[in-house]
Amino acid sequence: MGSFFIIRCFLLFFFLFDGAFAATGKSWSRAEMVEMAGYGEQKLSSVIITGSLLCDTSHPQLRSIAIPGATVAIKCHTGNKRRSKWIKAVTDDVGEFEIDLPSQLHAIPDLENTCFVKPVNVPKRYRCYHTSTNIHKRIKLVSSTNGFRVYSSGKIRLQGHS
Questions:
Q1: CB-based contact 120:105 (threshold 8 Å)
Q2: Are 139 and 117 in contact (CB under 8 A)?
Q3: d(CA 112, CA 135)
Q4: Helix then strand then coil, % of the chain, to nearest 5
Q5: Secretion signal: which residues (predicted)?
Q6: First vs last Cα of the chain: how many Å apart?
Q7: What is the pLDDT of residue 108?
Q8: Long-range contacts made by residues 57-64, C-beta under 8 angstroms, separation at least 24?
Q9: Is the whole model's pTM more than 0.70, yes or no?
Q10: Domains, the chain, with CATH or none
């Protein structure tokens, strides 16, 4: 009896409001609906993580060389029990990388102590390896203006082997 009453109320509500919207003859565009809902597709903030990956060599004239084509990743501990995802990027021709942090991570308090960058894969031709399997580098805030924050991991140095 109770579920029948709930269904009748729902149908009455649906027909009353459906008729009210149809009477106005107005159908909203996707952009209008997004605006009414209070959120949009425009980014309100950006968080960029930058850095470079270098290989320290034993060669006297080439103390450090850039490592292009290496994969680096950032991980931010969100406090959730589920595992945090690694966000990856590949270094450019001069060994530098840039990671645009997904918007769901922008509001994490104290990113500097929550996120770290780690080399994941280095091309074999560089014969440059991690000195420890657990190498990671914290990030530091470099710039913050108008919802645009830039953090840097600085130079991540790996040890070269002959």
A1: no
A2: yes
A3: 16
A4: 25, 35, 40
A5: 1-22
A6: 82
A7: 81
A8: 57/160, 58/160, 58/162, 64/157
A9: no
A10: 46-156 (2.60.40)
User: What H or E segment, with its residue span, contains residue 34?
Assistant: helix 30-37
Determine the Cα–Cα distance for residues 49 and 52; give it in Å rounded to an integer. Answer: 11
- 67 within 8 A of 94, measured Cβ to Cβ: no
How many angstroms separate the CA atoms of 66 and 123, rounded? Answer: 12
Structural contact between residues 141 and 132, judged by C-beta atoms closer than 8 angstroms? no
Q: Kindly give the pairing relationship between strand 46-56 and strand 64-66.
A: antiparallel
Residue at token pair 């649906």: 14
| Per-residue pLDDT tens digits for 80-117 | 656 667 899 999 999 999 999 988 888 887 888 889 99
